[in-house]
Amino acid sequence: MRKFLDRYYRLCFNCAAACLCLICLTVSIQVFFNLVNKTSSYIIGESLGWQLPSYGDFTGYFLVATTFFAGAYTFRVGAHIRVQLLLQRLGEGTKRKIAELISCLVVIFVLSMGTYYAFLLCLESHEYGDVSSGLIAVPIWIPQLVMVAGLFSLWLAVVDTFLQLVRKENPPYMTGSSSTGE
Amino acid sequence: MDPLVISIILLLVLFLLLGTGIWVSFSLLSLGMLALALFSNAPVGEVMATTLWASSHEWSLAALPLFVWMGEILYRTKLAEDMFTGLAPWLRRLPGGLLHINVFGCALFAAVSGSSAATAATIGKMTIPELTRRKYPENMVLGTLAGSATLGFLIPPSIILIVYGVSTEQSISRLFVAGILPGFMLVTLFMLFIILWALLGRKKLPVDDEQYTFKEKIYRSRRIIPVLLLILGILGSIYSGIASPTDAAAVGVVLALVFSWLTGSMNRETFFGALEGAVLTSCMIAFILAGAAVLTVAMGFTGLPRMLASWIATMELSPYMLLAALTAFFVIMGLFLDGISVVVLTTSIIIPMVEAVGIDLLWFGIFLVLVVEMAQITPPVGFNLFVLQSLTGKDIFYIARAAIPFFIVMVLALVILTIFPELATWLPGKMAF
Q: A125-161: string of b/e by CB count within 10 Å (b at 16+)?
């Protein structure tokens, strides 16, 4: 189970990384098109009008995927920042464990609500057939489902962490040197 | 209920949430939910879900992971290291010698990176060993580095300005341009301070015996060319009109990949390491932004910022008084929070007040960045301090003490910016769009 979950978090994270590459690719292609358009308006006096259809929408959806798919793994390795002042004072003992348990409980509550209502939002978009306004009409529920899946994975990761703490195991962010990033 | 009572309750809850170590993003999110549930009639869950969605698929926000990624690539490859070799021969004759390399290196790197922690890490990694080997006094080495690394936020591209622009609906390109002159001003002030310090206490400095002919200097400078091209590529593509800041970020990533591949320091390991670091950091920031967005919307529903704004308006404070009060407030917040959290909290509560006294939001963005930069070097929570601690193993309070003079220089810069607001607003005013 442990192995399976860790692999699952990592898999989601890799999807997120792939989506970041897609963002870069989409945007780079559009920049190249802009360059072509600009050059052609100098040379032949008119822009060729090359355009990736709905490129802004797609970039946004890839961004949603990057953010939410990465959530669980980012949480597990401790890259979400927090104020450590008091926690560090508590040392490694029981008090620290209790503080961690409370933090996890609050986050589990918030995420349960978040995931549930995000799912409702997604269902609603599906029901009303909402589509994006760009050239290519993407049904909004698809990227919204990505958000729901990501939130659910994150919820799973926090519950997993909570249970680990209950079983007196150390979650990875407490054992390894947690990276702070910015 | 009295708006003041509500604000005090919410502020206490916020400190409680943050203090007990709940992740910043979830503290903001919970506070938003609480405010919605207690002080408004809006449906909590629905508002939260809609806001989470609306705040995370914003196209302009895509600039953020891309700039973070570019910084990660530069951090892991030799592009940054080459800057040291290129800059050193030119700066060693100034009073203060190679200490200026921290300022210059940070300024150059800030022009390709959006974050001050990335700037501190990248520049520190190459200058600390070199300067220590040449026996420069340690506190000056660390102080100059901690201080000038904060330029990462001011000189475009800047992650903080993207965050500010997205949450206050200001044009990010204009904010970027607005940061240029104040950035130069801060560089100048830092350099003047080092020169002054060196002239007053000359004997503390080591004598550099390496000699270069002019030709050698030019020859060695070729190694900063990739970085200069990168800066040119990013800023050039924005201001020639072929790219928005988001687009320019992608250009930056591609150029950084190409240059690091050409100079031979790109391999599988660096590529994936940089990608992973970028996803981790940008995920963390995106969650904070989403949490802050929920808080902002919740605040809108409670009507609190509006009430506070009109309350401030009745007090007939002058803008200067308000700014002074806000600065004190931010510096205190900055003791415990990182820059991005300070900015997002501000935008949800303080922006209406600032507008009420007639302060230009573009200018206020730059002002806020300067204050946030100061927060980066104040203990106990300051990211630049954390970075330098991990680089040198010195305790953060030691590093913070070394950075005090630079903190004071930044206060001076803040005063200058307030007296001459044109420093920030003149260049964007010249822009066509």
A: beeeeeebeeeeebebbebbbbbbbbbbbbbbbbebb
